[in-house]
Amino acid sequence: MPVALSDSAILDALRPIVDPDFHKSIVDLGFVKNIQIDGGNVSFAIELTTPACPVKAEFEKAARDRVVALDGVESVQVTMTSNTRGRNLSAEGPQSEILPGVKNTIAVASGKGGVGKSTTAVNLALALSQAGAAVGVMDADVYGPSLPLLTGVTGRPRTSEKRIFPHEGYGLKLMSIGFLVTDDSPVIWRGPMVHGLISQFLSDVEWGELDYLVIDMPPGTGDAALTLTQKAPLSGAVIVTTANDLSLIDARKGLKMFEKVQVPVLGILENMSYFTPPDLPDRKYYIFGEGGGRRTAEELGVDFLGEIPIDPRIVEGGDAGRPIVFEAPESEAAKGFVDLAGKVARKLAVLAEDAPQTADANITWVTS
Asked: Cα–Cα distance between 263 and 125 in angstroms, integer?
């Protein structure tokens, strides 16, 4: 006579499924929710730490296979849900007033311009959004804002009672100085003005409830970058580089800046890594050199987040306001950005379990 099904039997069947980042069973982590047993019909939910979990499909299949193998089970329904881990939004303190509804703030940075940092920021945000997360993009490159061009969104944002309401495009909340000036207006600002604008974007924009806010950082370590690292509750940083030595030298400088302010560096992404001709799909031409980003990541003790290939559609889509993750999701470049989103989301979920200390805002910068 078959043994009657029970919650404990279901949990025991699921216990061998281990989360690869937390290195614990999904049962011990409390991911399994709402077990329902109706005769031989079993249903339950698996609540992940981010909707962008790259092993979501594997978890779902493994869970279904293990439970359906139990004696007496006729059908299994697995519902995949998520509860994005991030900063404690109920905590009190100076930084609780900055971006109060944002769980994770991701800085996308580079030591120099021209490496595809803004393109990376937009496509990373879009990949996170397509996975089911609530996402915003803040274009903090006050001297060369590119968010209007990359998304095709223009015009002044709506304001009400001293609050600024971000534009929306592709399911993302968007804010940029480019929405406030005309295309041919020179942005000639000094330190205090830059500081004031960045502070306003952090405090006066109605971002609402977001799982992730992706900040397109200005290149280098100037006034805008320093203001952001000191004022924004940054959860982590992605460093974008190309494989050539000059970009890698500058990438090291950007990484050191985040280390000084105790912002975790999530890893290094190598953009424009290689080119594959359409008529030679098995060939890779490393135009700017090969393996530089990976070697730099290993030398500096951070993760290598992958390679994004050169694809003319990235430039064409960017100029037309159509990011490649949206325009050509089957492309290797788009798949690379989706993979990046999964890695970043998982790393932030792990970091949220042991949040780093808040950096002292009174930092003395010296040259070595």
From this structure: 19
Let me know: does 218 contact 250? Beta carbons within 8 Å. no
Reduced to 3 states (helix: H, G, I; strand: E, B; else coil), residue 80 is strand
Per DSSP, 124 falls in state H
Q: Which of 342, 291, 336, 290 is nearest to 311 (CA)?
A: 336
Q: What is the pLDDT of residue 177?
A: 87
* Alpha helices for the chain (secondary structure H): 7-14, 56-68, 117-130, 147-151, 191-203, 223-231, 245-260, 292-300, 312-319, 324-327, 332-352
Ranges in the chain, pLDDT < 70? 1-3, 88-96, 182-193, 220-224, 354-368
Q: What are phi and psi of 81, to 5 degrees?
A: -125, 180
pTM: 0.87
Task: Look at residues 212, 66, 117 and name the one whose alpha carbon lies nearest to residue 58.
Answer: 66
Going by DSSP bridges, is the β-strand pair 41-48/75-82 parallel, antiparallel, or unpaired? parallel
User: Whole-angstrom Cα distance, residue 255 to residue 240?
Assistant: 10
Classify residue 248 as exposed, middle or buried by CB count within 10 Å of its CB (0-12, 13-18, 19+): buried
Tokens of 125: 């945000």
Cα–Cα distance measured from residue 157 to residue 168, given in angstroms and rounded to the nearest whole number: 10
- Reported as type and span, the H/E element at residue 103 is strand 102-109
The pLDDT, as a whole number, for residue 242 is 86
Domains belonging to the chain, first-starting first, are: 7-82 (3.30.300.130), 94-352 (3.40.50.300)
Quote the pLDDT of residue 357: 43
Four-point Cα dihedral 118, 124, 130, 132, nearest 10: -120
Element holding 56 (H helix, E strand) = helix 56-68
